[in-house]
User: Fold this.
Amino acid sequence: MGLKIIVLAKQVPDTRNVGKDAMKADGTVNRAALPAIFNPEDLNALEQALRLKDRYPGSEVTILTMGPGRAADIIREGLYRGADNGYLLTDRAFAGSDTLATSYAISCAIKKISDYDIIIAGRQAIDGDTAQVGPQVAEKLGLPQVTYAEEIVSVTEGIVAEDDKYGVPHAILADEVSLNIKGSLVIKRRLERGVETVGTTFPCVLTVNASAPDCRPRNAKKVQKYKHAKTVTEIQDQSEDYMDLTADRPYLKIEEWSVNDIETDINWLGLSGSPTKVKKIENVVFQAKEAKKISSDESELEELIVELIENHTIG
Amino acid sequence: MANFFTDNPELKFHLTHPLMEKIVALKERNFTDKDKFDYAPMDFEDAMDSYEKVLEIVGEICGDIVAPNAESVDQEGPKIVDNEVIYAKGTQENLDALVKAGLMGITLPRKYEGLNFPIVPYIMAADIVSRADAGFVNIWGLQDCAETINEFASEEQKQKYLPRISNGETAAMDLTEPDAGSDLQAVQLKATYNEEDGKWYLNGVKRFITNGDGHVSLVLARSEEGTTDGRGLSMFIYDRNEKAVIVRRIENKMGIKGSPTCELVFKNAPAELVGSRKMGLIKYVMALMNGARLGIGAQSVGVSESAYREALQYAKEREQFGKPIIQFPAVYEMLSLMKAKLDASRTLLYETSRMVDVYKTYMHISEERKLEPEERKELKRYQKMADFFTPLLKGMSSEYSNQLAYDSLQIHGGSGFMKDYPIERIYRDARITSIYEGTTQLQVVAAIRGVTTGGYVDRIREYEAMELKPELHGYRRILIGMTEEYVHAVKTVTSVKDLEYVDFHARRLVEMAGHIVMGYLLLLDTQRDDSFKTSTEIYINYGKAENQSRAEFIHSFNLDQLGLYKHV
Assistant:
């Protein structure tokens, strides 16, 4: 069984080790001061995709990313680790997108790719921390979704049984609403208080947690093979020798899609398609404001407990 | 999120040495592989860019996985389960990451699924891995054995074993026995040829074998019955899949505890002869050992790097008497000298690696076509230099790694003596570098020929003639003075015409040559990059004083005094 897997990945500013200049005075992220990296949980997602590819030879892993031209780095990073190809969705029309507009644009791109079995994304990106894009993409494509995935336990091709054990009569349902069901997955989800094992049909969308295995390293041979992979825009600045090279090696061309390459309603894109309004951004500076001394006296302790419960610190 | 390659710009400096253009062109045979392999470079810049990108992977794995695992690996160590060596959990994680990254056959030709990198980037990877975990580099670095198979085994053997190593199988070199350590001529493990099935069988015991349960082992064994010296020894490949070797025990060591040091019992173990009979020790082990000694040079430099970094960080953070201890002369002098020795041993490491690169690549080319007279001359020249420089590097850099570990622990004070800081492990790990693959004393035995035949002086005169910026001429004058002093000391010792007398002073003379060589190499580094100036000045000052004391000892000594030292 060869699966077609799309990994949704985002290039993000590395907010994990922030220095003093990480934020601008107006409270927005100073992207220049932070290195652009592959969103960490998207790497966990990529690893899940690559493990499926290891398990089912003949599978194909495609990276889909939306962002400025330099986000092509994300696709190269994916190729270095074992992805087969990638699409960069880039256009000024996408600028200023919130999660709704982003998931709309991405879902349109996925519709254009059309042939896929499983879409895997990281749970959330470390710049916005919304965890909304994966689920919204699923909604827009009318696909089932499993969030907080940690492990894909099994993949079964085809429709399992009419009265299958998960209570979803796949065959009947598929027939009634003419759903496109290719098979089913069993997935472990990492929840706050434990692990839940669930089943879903696919095509579907999974979002993967950081608790899932780390992504494999870049591979030395793949790095040497794909380091010359470039998008159309990047190729423009290259020498003629390079043009000859890409003619011989078609895998070095990274697909770049603008708004004209996919079918969209322009009103749903970018700023105009983004209902999110930022009311105010504050710089939070941690500092001790007032100190309170409490003796080990029973009554004082009780008073403290009551106070903490009242202000919802505990309880 | 550390990267042990990119956080150390000195590595890139050594990677981009001017001689690399020649080395890469030779190694890539003028870039003919590019039509056959999608990962082969198109030109020099492309190749260098690939080395750098691959070293970035090494740096990332070492910073993010290998270094953080070092402490638990040191505590847990390997064990034997059902006659199989099971690595510590962290060791296995390290290995898995490096295998997935495709870093197991770095120097092997592409037709055997290797990366076809020169020795320089390979040694740089070893330098980086050693900084992360000096014990782990032993397992990973045994890919050196594949280089020996590539050099001397038959085409059939190469096709059978090399792709396996490129794809992640580990190796071992089985030389030492209970009664054959430094003196390998005494090896007794018996190889018997069975006329019936036309196979060789091995019987006997090997001891202190690093990664003894590796997939592919090179075994030195006595194939010629009735012989007692090195001429009766041959080299064999043993494949673990034969399951004919018992891992009797794993040694409980002081340091490099993650690396399994095994005692092996060969019980009628089928093995394949490598190359010609009787050449085992004389030719193949010598080549294997030279490669391994270069590897220990890298390990020593990596250990020095980690010892220096730990000391520097501690000295900046630790406050006593109201200020960070780095502000006290006693401490900053130690740190500066540590850095100078680190830079000195690293520049010697890459100088030696380049020499090995040039002559080994010529050797491989000579199997494909007849070398031009000029090329043959160059092969000989670089081989000779590499033969002198390898023991010098191994001896000096391993002693320096011990000195740096000692000083780094000293800077940590009482805290360094506790298990709370990494320096305690680094100190234990450093200790083996000046012992295995030939003790420092044996390196001196190999290096003294470079002293008595004038090999070092010849190379020193070449350095002397190289172009320097005017502001660096002063350092060269000091080095010229040191060279005169060295030549004079050598003459004083050799003119006695007594071999034991030469042996007695050998280490002094070799070290004098070492100080001059490394002084020049640092000076030439400064010519290319000003940031080495401090280390150059400190090292030359240090070397000058060290050489003076050695010269003083030699000149005020005579043959009669030798007797004094025999009373012990």
Residues 4-277 of chain A form a domain with the Rossmann fold fold (CATH 3.40.50.620). The longest strand of chain A covers residues 145-157. Chain A has a mean pLDDT of 88. Chain A touches chain B at residues 16-17, 216-225, 227, 241, 245, 249 (CB under 8 Å).
